[in-house]
Write a structure and sequence with these properties.
Layout: H1 3-23, H2 41-50, H3 54-60, E1 63-65, H4 82-102, H5 105-109, E2 111-116, E3 119-125, H6 126-151
Parallel strand pairs: 1-2
Antiparallel strand pairs: 2-3
Length: 166
């Protein structure tokens, strides 16, 4: 079994569940936050929408410098409606699936680095980056978003079976 054959079913399942959560976000709650130290619903949703977009760069480049000394630092998108967030998410998921499907097993064992100002913050095999910094990271923020929905009396969708709202 290839890397793509082993990871794509899980990736597709998690992205489908994630999309169900994103679909529930009311536009009028994007600025809501649970605590002054917390990020808003909109920030979490934008962050979730951008993460599948990291797959292509992880597979097709050796590193990503989020704060290059010769340029602007990376910034998350600031989309202002659930529709825009879903469109961005869908585009990034499609791009990620295409990149994963075309990735060679050998490429996925090669190291990739996250840099800040040219300094490596993290270096690990590409397959590990996809699993941790994309899939697991999305699940983490999806869980936060699910709690935020619950706190705003927005029905939470089932993901691994029915939710308390279904």
């Amino acid at each position: 079994m290839t890397y793509a054959e082993s990871i794509l079913p899980e990736f597709e399942q998690e992205m489908a569940s994630t999309r169900k959560v994103l679909e529930r976000i009311p536009d009028d709650k994007l600025d809501w936050k649970a605590h002054p130290k917390s990020n808003t619903i909109g920030w979490n949703a934008n962050h979730i929408a951008e993460m599948p977009g990291w797959v292509d760069g992880t597979i097709n480049r050796d590193a990503w410098d989020i704060a290059p000394s010769s340029g602007e630092p990376y910034q998350s998108p600031k989309l202002s409606s659930t529709r825009e967030i879903l469109e961005h998410f869908d585009q990034n998921v499609a791009s990620a699936k295409k990149a994963i499907a075309s990735a060679s097993d050998e490429a996925m064992t090669k190291n990739w680095s996250l840099l800040k100002g040219g300094q490596a913050m993290i270096t690990m095999p590409r397959a590990g980056v996809i699993r941790t910094f994309v899939i697991n990271h999305i699940i983490h923020h999806r869980a936060i978003l699910s709690v935020y929905l619950r706190l705003n009396d927005v029905p939470v969708p089932g993901m691994y079976g029915p939710s308390g709202d279904e």
